[in-house]
Every structure is written in C-alpha cells, then in structure tokens.
Amino acid sequence: MALAFDEFGRPFVIIREQEQKSRLKGLDAQKANIMAAKSVARVLRSSLGPKGMDKMLQSPDGDVTVTNDGATILEQMEVENQIGKLMVQLSRSQDYEIGDGTTGVVVLAGALLEHAEALLDKGIHPIRVAEGYEMASKIAVQQLNKIAQKFEFSKDDVESLVQTCMTTLSSKIVGRCKRKLAEIAVKAVLGVADLERRDVNLDLIKIEGKVGGKLEDVELVHGIIVDKEMSHPQMPKVIENAKIAILTCPFEPPKPKTKHKVDIDSVEKFEGLRLQEKQYFTDMVNQCKDSGATLVICQWGFDDEANHLLMHHDLPAIRWVGGVELELIAIATGGRIVPRFQELTPEKLGKAGIVREKVFGTSKDRMVYIENCANSRAVTILIRGGNKMVVEEAKRSLHDALCVARNLIRDNSIVYGGGSAEIACSLAVEAAADTVAGVEQYAMRAFADGLDSVPMALAENSGYQPIESLTAVKAEQMRDNNPYLGIDCNDTGTNDMRKQGVFETLIGKRQQLMLATQVVKMILKIDDVISPSQYD
Amino acid sequence: MAGPRILQDDAVEEKGDRARMASFVGAIAVADLVRTTLGPKGMDKILQSTGRQKEVMVTNDGATILKSLHVDNPAAKVLVDISKVQDDEVGDGTTSVVVLAGELLREAERLMNKKIHPMTIIDGYRKAAECGRAALEAMARNNSGDPAKFHEDLIRIAKTTLSSKIVSQDKDHFAKLAVDAVLRLKGSTNLASIQIIKKPGGSLKDSFLDEGFILDKKIGVGQPKRIENAKILVANTAMDVDKIKIYGARVRVDGMGKVAEIEAAEKEKMREKCRKIIAHGINCFINRQLIYNLPEEIFADAGVMAIEHADFDGIDRLALVTGGEIASTFDNPESVKLGECKVIEEIMIGEDKLIHFSGVAMGEACTIVLRGASSHLLDEAERSLHDALCVLTQAVVDSRVIWGGGWPEVMMARHVDELGKKTPGKKSLAMESFATALRAIPSIIAENAGLDSADLVAQMRAEHFKEEGDEDRMLAPGIDVVSCGVADMEKLGIYESFKVKQSVLLSATEAAEMILRVDQIVKCAPRRREGM
Fold first, then answer.
1. Which of A109, A270, A411, A478 has the greatest number of beta carbons closer than 10 A?
2. Which residues of A touch B74 (CB under 8 A)?
3. Helices B498-516 and B16-35: crossing angle, nearest 10°?
4. Complex ipTM
5. If you compute the radius of gyration of chain A from its CA atoms, what whole number of angstroms results?
6. Nearest neighbour of A56 by CB, restricted to B4, B518, B525
C-alpha cells in the first residue's frame, strides 16, 4: 500500500492495492517487461531473412491472413501486454518511416533486451545499461555511415534499384517472380518520382488486387484502375480521348442542410413540383454535357432516371467512386473535383487518352481502366494471384518494395545485407568498448552481442549452424577487413554480398538501429508496472 | 516456458511443429473430403443447410461443397479459398485443385518427417511446378485455325467436363447444348447472356437450347398473348406511384375535396406517363419494377403487352437480346432505341407459362431450358452446365487443349521426375514428391471408379516411358474408366482445356507453398457478439 501523509500527519492512500490490481516493482518489473518483449521478438525471429517462415493469423472474425511482414504480423496478433504493444509500435513506426525492415527492428530490440537481462543479473543498474547502449548505437551508426556506399542510378539505368527491391521481395511468398515485381515497383516509383527534388509521393501509386489468374499476370498501368463498372450496362465500354467530369454531388434534387418543408396543397402546386423535379434532372445532365464532358465520375449514386438520361445523352458515367480514388483520378487526369453542377466548366475537366472497362474471369467482375492520362504521374499496379491471401500478401510485399525504391531515390546510400552490416557494426562497437572505462563497457559489449543475433537468426532460418557460420563470417571480416561479408542465405556459394547483389538502404538500417535502441532504453527505464483493476 | 502472456485471453497460439501439424491435418482433411468426388465415377455429396428449412443439396461440384462448409481451421480455409477462386476464374477443376494441393501437402509432411526444411521443399516444388507447366505448354495443341476441328475440340472438352456430373448419361446432348450456347457468344466471356431456366418435369433429355429468349414471367391480364413484329420498350421505372424526389416535399391538404383532387392529379400523372410510353410506338412494354393495375389497364386498352417485375438480370439480358436500351425517362420518344423481335408469344413448358421472344436482333443471347425429375437434380444439372459453359468460354479465349483422363498429370510427373534426377541437393527429393503427388490424381480417379489404382497408374507410367517408335505406343495413355484399363485418350476423345489444367497446377502449388511456409498460427480471440 502506497501511503503518504498530509500536512496534518493523517495518512492517505495514493494507490489502492486490491486483489485485482497487479503491481510489479524494481527488478521484477524490468525482468517481466524484458520477458514480454522477448516473447514478441521470438515470434518474429523465424520470419527474418529470405528463408524466413510465414505466420498464419486468424482474425476475430475468422478471416485468415498469411504473412511474412513483421508489422502486419504484430498488428494482427492483437497483443495485449503493454510492453508487447511497445514492440508493435516499434515495428509500426519503422513501417511508416521506412516501410521495410519491420521484422529486423523487432528482432534486434529483442536481442538487445535479452543481453541487457544478463547485465541486470550482474547487478548493473538499468540506467547504466541504457547509457552504454546509447553510446554503442552512436558508434554503430558511425560505422554504418562509414561502410555505406553511394550507388548510382539514372532514369535509364535502373538495374541497381531493381536489385535492391529484389532483396526485399526475396523473403516473401512472391519471391517466385521477384524480378518482375521488382521491375514493376521500380518503374512505378520512377513514374511518380520527382528526381529534381529527390522526392516520391507514394500516394500516387495505387495498388489494386484482384483474385484470380496467377502472380505473373501482375501489371503496371499508367493510369488509374477503379474497381467499378459503368452505371448503365449499355453505356460504351471504351471511350477514347475522354474528358472527365469529376463530381462530388449526387444526381439528385438538392438537399439543403436546413430543415424545410415544401407544402403541396393544390393540384397546381403538385403539377409544378413534378415539372420542377424533371427539370432538375435535365439541367444536371445538360450542365455536364455543355461542359464538354464525355465521361462522368461521381462520388455518389444516381437515380434511375438520371442514369437513363445520361445514357440517353451518350454520357457514360461511373458511380459510387470512393473519395481517395476520386482524388487520384483528379490528379492523374489533371481535372478538378467539382462539388456543384453549376461550377462545371470545360477547364475543370480531366483528360485521359482511353478509358475502358475490362472483364475478369467467368464471374461478372469488371474494372474500369483510365489510361494515358494528361498528367501521367499516377500509376496503378494490378496484382493477380491464386487466392485472396496471396494477393493480400503480394500487396504488402510490393508496398515494401516501393518504399525501398523511394528511400533509394531520397538517399542513394546503401549498405550490404545478409547481416554483413550488423557484423561490421558489432566489430566496431566491440573495438570501441575496450576504450571505454566504466560499467558502460559491459553494456557496449552486450550491444555488440545483440547485433550479432541478427545474422545468427538469418543463419538459423536458412538451415545453417548459427554460431558456426556467424563466427566464420566474423573472423573473415576481421581478417580481410571486408565489411561486405554476410551470411549466404541463398546457398550461392559466396559470402560476399557485393557479388550476390544483396543491398539494403542506409536509412533503413540506421533507422532500425536507432529505433531499436530507443525502445530498449525506454523499456529498461520502467521500474514500476501498475495495471488497473478490471471493470466488471 | 511460461513467459508472460502477451496475447488476449482467448487467443490461441500454436508454434513450430504443432502449428505445421494443425495446418496439415486441416488441409488434408478438406482435400480428403472432396477426394471421392473426383473423376467421372466420383460420388456426390449431400449437403444439408443449417437454415430453418434444412434444405438439401446434392452435388459433385468441389467449389459448391467447400463453399457450404463451415471450416474453422485456417489452413483449410486457404484450400476453400483456392477452390472458390478456381471457380470464379475458370469455372472447372475446383475439385482437382484442392485434391492436388492436399496431395502436395501430404507428400510434404512425409519429407518433413525426414527432417527436410520446409523452405527446401518449397524451392523444389516451385521448380517442379515450373517444369510441369512448361511440359504442359509444350504438349498443348491449338486448333483454333480450323473451325471444324475447333468445334470438335469444344464438344470434347464439354463432354469431359460433363462426364463427371449427374448429367453424364446425356452428356452428348448437353455438350452440344453448351457448345452451341457458347459459340453464340462469339468470343465474349459474358455468361450473363446465357440464361438457364429450370423447370421440373420431363427428363434431362428434354432440356433444350432456345435461340430466342425466354422470360419466366406472365403477360398482364387482357393484353394480347401473341405479337408479331414486336417493338419493345425495356424500362426501369416506377409504375406504381411516382415518388416525389424533391427533398422535404409533403402533401398537405385541408379537406376531403383536396384529397380527391390530388389523387386525380396523381392518376393524371400516371396516365400521362403511360401515354408517353405508348407514344413510342411500341406494342410491348417490359418493366423491371411493378406495374400497378391502372397503368396495366391503360396498356391493355392500347393493345400493348406489359410485363412487370422482370428482374435485373432479365432486363439486362432482354436489352442485350432485343437491342433496345433500358429507359427510365420517356420524354423524347424519337431518340429512344426500341428493341425488336419477330414474335412474342406465351408458351407452355410443363405446367408453366413463359414468354418466348423469337427472331431477336442480336444473336448473342440464348436460353437453355433444363428439365428434370426433381429440383435437386435440376440444381445440380445447372451447376454442371455452368461448369461446362465456363470452361468453354475460357477455351474460346485460350483455345489450347490437352488430353484428359489423368494423362497430363502422369506426363508432368515424368518430366518432373527427370528434372529431379538432374538436380543436385535435397531439392530433388521435393521434386520427386511433387511427381508422386501428381500421380496421385489419376490414382484417385481410378480408385473412385473401383479399379485397381496402383496397377493402372503403374501401367500408365510404363506407357509414358515408352520411346517414340516403340511398338503400339499410345499417343496419350490415360485411364479409361469405361473399359477399366489404360487407353489412348486421343482415340477416346477425352480433351481438357489447357487453361484449366494450368491454373489447377499453379494454384495448388501456390496454396501448398503458402501453408508450408507457416510456422506459427495465432488465432485471435473471437469477436464477442451481442446477445450470445
């Protein structure tokens, strides 16, 4: 019971300790936290690397997800434990910031905590451990910058970009056709990239999945695909040189926000109302037609009458298009989103070379392709696959690849993969540790050990003796002073990652190191866990 | 080790070997479930729904069986899903794909017991699948250049598909029906324009293809029952009361007299609408929505046939068939395209009256009328026919054909075996397993037909290994379940569509790979539902 005394010396309770309330203090709290974080990391450990395994997750509603992506696994596991949630957020922030390496960052954090635990057992104060880790991570980042290489690519020579994307994709189920997917990802990113400003707006890349066909059928469309069909079955399926009116108002009589009533109390008024109603529809369609539009894309639905009138005026239309898609269409076609029919003018129309409806498979699935847009910056990647889970996983994998390509365009420094960067950093940290006096030396060594566990997990997942292969590579790196040696996961016969062409982005790696260190420090600093009692 | 609990209370987590076992068991159980329905002598399943009616369905169609199952095992769900996709994408082979995936997993389990890493197995499977696909592609033939031969190919494909179904007795008849229907589509894959109407009564043989269009509706009372040179307006409009669409409008009256006036105005409005419709110069009006008595009467007076409540599909098809447009406004009669047909008449099929449109403008659509002893039979016949139609439309697009009867599997198995022999490393074991899994398909076909499967498959295999030029070498040895032996599929005319086989191979491998890669299953706590 936590008690305090007020100025009159009367005791009062700060935290009421009851049966249901659990409280952990001191070393116990740290131990329990580390344990929780470790068990989260252990889940992901076997997913690391090109030979990593997948996880099957069943959602509360019974839907099945099969994935290899760290962020997705953790997100869908619905972790309850508070420290576990920290790890989930760690992976998520790596996903938001970099998009790749979401598994690696959690595995690294888990390993660092594991080694910290041993230090705590020795009686070293957690804050000292945290400080040592901080120093070590600085050295590791310096080493990363040192071994990083600039890598050249241009709009015509994208081979190196493709290689990097392939490294990312090789660990996924889509590894079978990684070359094709990597090329598509690079083309898509270059398509929307602003090379002058070295920036890529990934929002311009839409990834659309359709179950059926095979993975090899994946295609890159220079335009937008909308999973909708023409509103009237008899509207033309192909429109060339389309002028598109993008509307966010329904083809319906206006609905003022203020409450009102139109009272009809005579036959004349009734007639008037009817005429008025008809007039609305005709006006709306005419306004579209007068602006010169040859295709109407609307965020809302239309009434049967409006639908027919549109059809009658040879004005094909697509209804119920989502807001995000509408924006993309507007960007791609250079049109403006028009909220009112009155504001429709020829300048506000978007332009596209060809708009066509395409049918898939034996069911009546249709999609509308909008291609050759005025502003060709927006692209869509259409993924096909044997089942829903493959398509979903392919989407996630492609997203990772896109992020990697974007990161490279932002900053073209790379480090080599296969655990080589971790080993190089570990060596650097270990060397630096010897020069530091004090307890931090231990912490730095522990940090180096923690770094080692990434290549160790890689080797383990690839079916090698983990310790044997790690020590062999480490010794070789030390001897040859070659920081590009890593674990040969793909059984190609060489440890030199330059020859294998396994790259990762420098910012991705750096982010992993820094994020993992931060979270570890945070977990180490917690010495009291108070969980509130359950509401019953 | 009992670490702290990181998941929710009800969540279940399975790891490593246990997870793998759970998914293997689930997937193989599903595959075994549909295993007995494979092949021409496959058995049917009775499915009883959990609904209040306890409806019963008898079927042989893999996708239908699996769709109706409530599986809880996540790996089993993967298999159900591939079967569904196979159904949507190519329409047939829904059983084969699940059985093949199940066999691949069974073989994989055997390898895992020998301590071979799943990633190695996947690697081998991928290479084997690629090799099988290449072999299949090399052996596929294309007869699209020669219309007569192509037509024959289509008939054979249809027969092969239908032979495993309930309609197999009349497969010649149905194959012809299906091929005729599909050829009318002229290359489009829009099955919507082939309408299937089921009418209990008669026998399966009495089913027929009607070149015109049949609408399962009745003609309004007092209207002409037969129209020649019909001009048809197809519409989707409210013919009961026109709703006022202006927001917030309401009718307010202050006396009985006013009510009558408004009512009169309302009626006048409807009359006006009818007049406008009639002004199109039509003699047949078909609406998707209800037609009330008043307009019906007006139409009857004008000698216009009015058909109400034709559903969405019916309207779409009618518009397609007659070449008219679906109208919802009627102000410009001159620009509305009317549908046309030679004769509209009421016909009787069995007990029911239907409306028959013949001599329609566009030849694409047609109607298949299925007759049969019971509604279960008809449902199953419809599913079978649907399969055949799907396969045929796909075959029209991709006209490559291969032989059936287990020939492709044994052929691919041979090629995969050869590749396995050349491949160094543990991967070759996986390839051999792949070949074994492929050979399991003909063996199941034989088993289901009550034949000695091991003997037959061995014979077939021997036949496949015969070199060119050997004496009495068969062109395409496969299982003949009729004569109970190995026979030449070319002579028997058992053909299958290349696209179906390819997609079976690829989807099954993909699914098996997906399940193999899993080493941990996390089941989240089921969502709590209210009132449970």
1. A109
2. 56, 58, 64
3. 150
4. 0.73
5. 30
6. B518
